[in-house]
Amino acid sequence: MMRSAAFLLDDWLLKCRGSRIDLDHSGMPSPYPEGFDPQIDDAGLDGLELEEQLRALLAKQYGAKRSNVALATGAQHANFLFFGACFCREDRVAVESPTYSPLVSAAEVFTRKVLPVEREKDAGFDLGRLAQAFDAGAKGLAMTNLHNPSGRQLSNGEVKAIIELAQERGALVLSDEIFREMSYSKPSRPAASFGDNAVSTCGMTKFWGLGEVRVGWLVGSEEVVDKVNLLRIYSNHRVPARSAAITIEALKRKDWFRERALRLAQGNLRILDEWAETEERLSFRRPDGGLLVLMRLPQGIDDEEFAIRLFKRYKTAVCPGRYFLAEGCIRVTFSCGNEAFAEGLEQISAVMDQMTS
Q: Residue 61: in which H helix or E strand, if any?
């Protein structure tokens, strides 16, 4: 029987509903108020034809073949399908730590054992540790790029080295790239472009701000894609036609979406830098992309207690790091406006005053 761990991250988000300042939401706001108007005519939408158009457009953007693209109802669903299609109950897999917790949960559902591989303080990988996981029997590695929760970007050289190491050991690599296009510099290449043993997953949430359409995808070898497609048909059949149509129109305007994301990030990064000049009690590495930063609290301060106090006192939400396997940290996001972000940071400092006095 499949058993899933409690989704504590989602439980936390539900507890924070009604927050006045949301520093917990890591995706872009909806693009509709800013001029995205896909003009979808619902009459006569052909779901199968739209899926084929979507796969063709994604293949072109990834420099792949249409047969290298599988669709899903979100990146998280694509990750789930990957584990379900490519591993069996007796397998072991490695998963980066800290990370987005559903990656771990999905691996636990379908395999016997998850081997955590700690990412370095700068959120890179120690290839020696990774080799140890493969030598201990891991048949796959799950990672994120940009890294969630730190926003660290793995370079092309780092991604290539990871995939080559896995290939030497006969292992697959899953790279969740939901934040990849939000890099402040040139985004790293998709992991799938480095080898047939690697797959890239993504969806319409973070970069696009279109989570409600529930569309995601996986790019990989034809062998993996065929397995994932079969499981997808059994689990949720097809992508809704209207969702596919909206996704196609958004993908055609990728440059517009990227300019929008960078504009929001750059304004709030200036505020983050100014705040960090006077707030020295929380340490962090400036992210390479995205709308998120992982902050380490002073020793002895509980991350969940800190987040609860902040929410109760100010109705400001941040995420306890423990929900990303990073106890003693908080993940702070900045998908809000400049004024709200600045106020939220000041409130973080105020709660720090209370807990350190």
A: helix 47-62
